[in-house]
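Please decode residue identities from the backbone states below.
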């Protein structure tokens, strides 16, 4: 598997030859909408992927995967095609772009990358931005959903009970241990029994780039993760879990599954266990 990240130089040389997607999502607790950032300036030709809109709107859980049919219609309207490379970025650096990277892969897009450093690095280098929304021609999309990249509550519970895979939580350590409250109301504090913790900011640099392969591997090893065994990632709502999946892809692990509902589902369900502490 090639590295899942591309540089600003790489993208600048290929504008017009690849599909570019702005996947900005405000961080939990931040006001506004990702579209606000897009409208204020985006990479030329980029389309806006609304993570909360291209989702299963029949559930109260945030930005759950839509059906393959609904996804095909939505991304087809954005002009995306499985036949063209896709580069995803966000306005934070590397935060919400991995969620769309994972979503596209789960829906069968074979060549998807994340822009290292995202829009902040693009702007800092003085590269062009535009404010007019892109107007792509709609495309038919042949979705090929890959269920191996997705886990639901039943699957994660079975994984934890049977030990078939390691569950790695991307939330900050204080939330994982139950020492800090969850930012979303109605959720218990703590973590799943047997889960391990690699906070997502351990795999992303302060300036919004993905860490080196060596640094990523060390972060997972320090958390007790066996990189040779199957891994399922989780977080608050499936966003930073995708960042861990992206980081593991840099190590060649393209088989990592994401728990879509994550703590928004598990922490609200009184029928599943929660533990606190390390």
């Amino acid at each position: 598997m090639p590295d899942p990240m591309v540089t600003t130089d790489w993208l600048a040389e290929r504008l017009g030859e690849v599909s570019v997607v702005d996947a900005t999502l405000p961080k939990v607790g931040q006001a506004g909408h990702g579209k606000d950032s897009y409208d204020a300036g985006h990479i030329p030709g980029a389309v806006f992927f609304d993570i909360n809109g291209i989702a299963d709107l029949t559930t109260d859980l945030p930005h759950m995967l839509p059906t393959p049919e609904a996804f095909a219609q939505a991304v087809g309207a954005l002009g995306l095609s499985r036949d063209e490379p896709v580069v995803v970025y966000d306005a934070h650096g590397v935060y919400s772009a991995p969620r769309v990277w994972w979503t596209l892969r789960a829906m069968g897009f074979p060549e998807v990358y994340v822009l290292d450093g995202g829009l902040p690095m693009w702007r800092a280098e003085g590269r062009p931005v535009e404010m007019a929304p892109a107007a792509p021609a709609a495309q038919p999309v042949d979705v090929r959903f890959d269920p191996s990249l997705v886990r639901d509550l039943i699957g994660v519970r079975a994984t934890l009970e049977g030990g078939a895979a390691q569950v790695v939580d991307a939330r900050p350590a204080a939330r994982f241990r139950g020492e800090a409250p969850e930012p979303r109301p109605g959720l218990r504090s703590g973590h799943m029994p047997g889960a391990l913790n690699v906070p997502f900011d351990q795999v992303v640099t302060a300036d919004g780039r993905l860490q080196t392969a060596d640094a990523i591997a060390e972060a997972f090893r320090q958390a007790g993760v066996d990189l040779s065994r199957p891994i399922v990632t989780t977080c608050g709502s499936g966003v930073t879990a995708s960042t861990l999946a992206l980081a593991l892809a840099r190590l060649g692990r393209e088989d990592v599954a994401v728990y879509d509902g994550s703590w928004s589902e598990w922490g609200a369900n009184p029928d599943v266990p929660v533990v606190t502490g390390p």
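Observation: Strands lie at 5-6, 19-22, 47-48, 86-89, 112-115, 150-151, 166-169, 196-197, 231-234, 257-259.
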